[in-house]
């Protein structure tokens, strides 16, 4: 018989993060519901789930919701709950998000506001709904959020995205502190570049200087990022681990000795990295000025 525990992934471009690994690694024989905006992606994800089925008794469901409002997120969670006897999932993975990198001078007001919607609220509303329902049902569940390396630092081109990812870090810290009152665990992942369809979409607007700076980032596949999250690692690569160790704030440590070593490396390495990035940006000044002229943004 399948394990009665359930997991729900709330995402769009990142549906593929979990569908091949949840049934195998999170809870053996778990029931799984997935939520995304795009039905075609849901259909593909269901096929992946079926390919990784661990028991004939498992229940796999998919629901199409936008998730960018409190109402839609609550409705999505209710749909996922109804599919499993009306009970809130034991674990909710909030992975939705999208970036549209560009220069600040190119942005319209809606680009800044949508950056917060697509980078923060689209996960925050899900966590909000899940936490309330878990407490009502006295469910000692888990809430997983997905930020970014850019939730620890930032660079040119990400002024609409990085603030949202920093906000998710603040939300995770707050929920970790508050929800322990109810036995609910909160986790957050800070992945680097992930090679998904969303990454290809980002590159359509990403400034050339940003791409050059990021060229040193080897990135992760969706499967590698999922493995990190399901192993309760908040970082999944060395670069992000260095930023985490140097900016950990009040977050609990999983390995104090390793964090100490990383902190020492970051103490030397991050200032060098920062100066290198600043040098690249300043060297780009003339090229950037010409770019702005061609766009009609400066005289």
Automatic annotation (TrEMBL):
GO terms for cellular component: endoplasmic reticulum membrane. It comes from the Eukaryota. It holds the Pfam family adh_short. GO terms for biological process: 3-keto-sphinganine metabolic process; sphingolipid biosynthetic process. One of its GO terms (molecular function) is 3-dehydrosphinganine reductase activity. This is Oxidoreductase. It comes from Suillus discolor.
């Amino acid at each position: 018989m399948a394990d009665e525990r359930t997991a729900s992934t709330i995402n769009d471009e990142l549906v593929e993060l979990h569908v091949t690994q949840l049934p195998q690694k999170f809870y053996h024989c778990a029931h799984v519901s997935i939520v995304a905006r795009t039905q075609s992606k849901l259909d593909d994800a269901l096929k992946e789930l079926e390919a990784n089925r661990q028991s004939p008794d498992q229940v796999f469901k998919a629901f199409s919701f936008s998730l960018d409002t409190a109402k839609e997120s609550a409705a999505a969670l209710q749909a996922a709950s109804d599919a499993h006897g009306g009970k809130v999932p034991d674990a909710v993975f909030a992975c939705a998000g999208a970036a549209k990198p560009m220069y600040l001078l190119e942005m319209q007001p809606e680009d800044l506001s949508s950056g917060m919607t697509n980078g923060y609220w689209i996960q925050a509303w899900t966590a909000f709904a899940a936490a309330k329902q878990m407490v009502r049902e006295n469910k000692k569940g888990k809430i997983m959020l997905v930020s970014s390396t850019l939730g620890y630092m930032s660079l040119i081109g990400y002024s609409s995205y990085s603030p949202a990812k920093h906000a998710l870090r603040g939300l995770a810290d707050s929920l970790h502190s508050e929800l322990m009152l109810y036995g609910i665990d909160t986790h957050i992942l800070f992945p680097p570049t992930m090679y998904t369809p969303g990454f290809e979409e980002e590159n359509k607007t990403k400034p050339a200087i940003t791409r050059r700076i990021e060229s040193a980032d080897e990135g992760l596949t969706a499967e590698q990022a999922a493995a990190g999250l399901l192993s309760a690692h908040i970082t999944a690569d060395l670069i992000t681990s260095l930023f985490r160790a140097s900016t950990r704030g009040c977050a609990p440590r999983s390995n104090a000795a390793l964090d100490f070593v990383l902190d020492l490396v970051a103490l030397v390495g991050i200032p060098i990295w920062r100066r290198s990035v600043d040098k690249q940006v300043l060297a780009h000044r003339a090229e950037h000025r010409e770019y702005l002229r061609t766009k009609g943004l400066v005289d």
